[in-house]
Design the sequence.
């Protein structure tokens, strides 16, 4: 089994810290809710999902279906979300 590197531990911690900061920023009113149109959400979903799907198709390994499925799920979740937040 491979050893876990320091980077593999730091990246999830940075993501969690960013999500916590975003939560408090939303609560303090630094971000305002925005409702995007259907076409804008479709565009965002394609931009989010395309890299994972393309990577999953290009890479020839036993992990390929995981990347493709994860890309589709990310795109679907991005499309279904109606309310997003932006800075004031």
Sequence:
């Amino acid at each position: 089994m491979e050893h876990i590197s320091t980077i593999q531990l730091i990246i999830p911690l940075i993501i969690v810290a960013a999500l916590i900061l975003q939560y408090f920023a939303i609560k303090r009113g630094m971000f305002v809710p925005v409702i995007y149109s259907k076409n804008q959400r479709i565009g965002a979903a394609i931009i989010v999902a395309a890299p994972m799907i393309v990577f999953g198709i290009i890479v020839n390994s036993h992990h390929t279906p995981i990347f493709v499925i994860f890309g589709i799920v990310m795109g679907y979740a991005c499309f279904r979300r109606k309310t997003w937040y932006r800075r004031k």
